[in-house]
Amino acid sequence: MPEKTKLLIIGSGPAGYTAAVYGSRALLEPILLQGIQPGGQLTITTEVENWPGVKEIQGPDLMTNLESHAKSAGTKIINETIIKLNLKKYPFIAMSEGGNQYEAESIILATGAQAKWLGLKSEEKYKGFGVSACATCDGFFFRNEIITVIGGGNTAVEEALFLTNFARKVILIHRRDTLRAEKILQERLFKNPKVEVIWNSQLKEIIGIDNPLSVEGIKIENLLDKKELEISCKGVFIAIGHAPSNELIINQLETHNGGYVVTKPNSTETSIPGVFAAGDITDFKYRQAVTAAGMGCMAALEAEKFLAEKIV
Length: 312
Description:
The protein is of the alpha/beta class and 312 residues long. The chain has 7 helices and 21 strands.
């Protein structure tokens, strides 16, 4: 028999845990399923200096605090991953990897999004120690340093421009000889004296040291003449886009912009009543912990309202 709940929260980043706190305070007795990466993307972030009220905290510590808050508020937190979700019947049914079923009167999707990575061993080694996929999260730590950005679309150009606020120099490395970014962004990039663009090149390796773990430079390859070049830098930002973690809702919920869940204006309501989306699963614009938390609050309040009106 499936375990029944008024509110099922799928995902455990800032959106999921905040939704859990508000859902618990509304006496909905929510169940939160943490997923494959409990705590979300912040668990691979080191210092967090843009969480209101906390000058500096380690990403994993922040998520531990949020989890503890949700538990103390009354949320049942389960370390399981949902692999199948049926939103076409009501109440909704979720199936976990371990074979457990959950029957929910309302659902908050907070499965987040994952940065796209190149798949290099050295990239994995230095994630959080000089390698990042979020300029607004980590750019501040590279003041007056040389930074490299990998990519050629809107994300890469926006990241490069943002990083000029901190860096001494920003080097954008792109596989082709033209950028895919919008023309107005390209104009701003080319006019910025802090930016250098290296064309027709790909990242081959990130060079660094082990004690302390940190980036010292990169090795790139020119795709035309196959020559390799080493560049000294302290930060490497991989900016080849993000992919929403939407596997559970494909062909069930309306999506846009590459798979992000569509929500109603100024709301977390999705195309199915009783299903709400919060955080990076729906947010392709801001992708910040604090905005995700705000949406988690909204989703819980809207779920409470949905359930109250349904009973009436």
